[in-house]
Amino acid sequence: MKTGAEDIPETALAWHRAGRSAAIATVVETWGSAPRQAGSLLLIDRNGAMEGSVSGGCVEGAVVTEAIEALADGRPRLLDFGVSDEEAFAVGLACGGRIRVLVDTVGGSLPETLLADLVAARAARRPVALVANLAGPSRHLATAAEFADRFRSDRSGVEADGQTFVAVHNPPLRMLIVGAVHIAQSLVRMAALAGYDVAIIDPRAAFAAAGRFPGVRLIDAWPDEALAAEAPDARTAVVTLTHDPKLDDPAIRAALESEVFYLGCLGSTRTHARRVARLAEAGFGEAEIARIHAPVGLDIGARSPAEIAVAILAEVTTVLRKGT
To answer: How far apart are CA 262 and CA 152, in angstroms?
Structure first.
């Protein structure tokens, strides 16, 4: 699983089990022009080797020193740093700010069993939060249902009580694109840059050719079979682009029967009206059909395939972050 935390939990567990010792530093709060957002992680071993970042370089040295001391005495640390305007400018920011960083040691304030459970949840694509009491060593895992708004917006942070820090670990975003068409060639690159694991579904070998989509996972199967195998969830977007009901409709039906957060379908208003009629005849209700975004993409006047891809990704982002 990749999130804003990258693979730090998995690496931390491996370092700990290999005898290297491991401390995890987490940004818990930021003010002003802070380089890294809440939830960002830095992993440190007892010799000062590190992975990740909590400040882009402003305070890493001080955090590493504190982490090594924490590994020696077994006590967590809650650190408060001011980032000067000069330091901020050095890492590409316009002005300074402040950050608070929590340092936990694996096997100490962060028990190995708890970290192992977190790693297992991430591997299973199960949304989970690591909840820390900033006033003490208490740590536990929580479900997405307990912090729904935070999971929806991928937003780690401190709760209103000022003492409870919630580190959100969401499954990676996925985008399943049905139709290896020209628009898809631009969309796969844009979606990957935005952090999506992207796959193209198209049983037509001439379209879904590696030469047309270098480095992209291509699924040579009928869309309904492919979606059944992929098991799309609430962190998955599905986009249909073939303009062929024989390919699009099975994918749409499968997506509507899942928890995908976004379903967008290429086609004119008239094309979509015929699509709606077919779905209604197949037994789908108005509320289910209303989940479809069609014509796909925000109305930005897009004309070229690349512009249409921009419009699609913009709409996907709007739905993901705002729920609309």
So the answer is: 13
β-strand 174-178 against 50-52: which pairing, if any? unpaired
CA distance 101 to 41: 9
Q: How far apart are CA 54 and CA 41, in angstroms?
A: 6
Pseudo-torsion of CA 84, 89, 93, 99, nearest 10°? -30
What's the DSSP call for residue 145?
Answer: G
- In single-letter form, the type of residue at position 250 comes to P
- Length, in residues, of the chain: 324
Summarised one tens digit per residue, pLDDT across range 34-48 is 567 899 999 999 999
- CATH architecture assigned to 174-322: 3-Layer(aba) Sandwich (3.40)
Q: Are 265 and 293 in contact (CB under 8 A)?
A: yes
Residue 2 is predicted with a pLDDT of 41
Domain ranges of the chain: 8-169, 174-322
Q: Per the structure block, which two tokens stand in for 283?
A: 């037994």
Mark the ranges of the chain whose per-residue pLDDT is less than 70: 1-5, 32-35, 56-58, 83-97, 324
SS3 179: coil
- Give residue-wise pLDDT tens across range 265-311: 999 999 999 999 999 999 999 999 999 999 999 999 999 999 999 99
> Tokens standing for 157?
């942070």
Q: What phi and psi, each to the nearest 5 degrees, are found at residue 255?
A: -65, -40
